[in-house]
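User: Hi! I'm working on a homework problem where we have to compare a predicted structure to a textbook description. Could you give me the structure for the chain below?
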Amino acid sequence: MELMILAQSVGRALQQRGLMLATAESCTGGWVAQVMTALPGSSRWFERGFVTYSNESKCEMLGVSAVTLAQHGAVSEAVVGQMVLGALRHSRAQVALAISGIAGPEGGSLEKPVGTLCLAWGVKDRAVITRRVQQPGEREAVRQVAVQLALEGVLALLQDG
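Assistant: Happy to help. Predicted structure tokens:
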């Protein structure tokens, strides 16, 4: 699904439920926030976005544990789970998503090759959902898929709850 249509669906779902969204993005550099705020009226359901590219910013802005970062690395389900909790804690939103990944072309390893994406979603007072996927492709394609998966995850989360 095209990103703007997907963003409109997410916006409608949030607005129908009276909920606000916060984003915590690393490898996508605020792309989810940009897509969401490109829509007229998004201030009714988009609360804020955190772009936390460095490990330090993840700790300072979202409260991600330095121990978790050291043990699991920035691209991990453990870290994106903490990013979601931090986005909820440091915003007025009731729904949050987080993305971290290795978009390439460098930075990959055997354990976490280029194209590794970790995503998380959360609603206040509910368990956080995390997912790790492998997305082959060039940097821009990997990042675009991350945005798409993040928005699809919000829709799924809202439909389940």
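For your comparison, note the following. The domain at 3-160 is CATH 3.90.950.20 (Maf protein). The chain has six helices and five strands. Good luck with the assignment!
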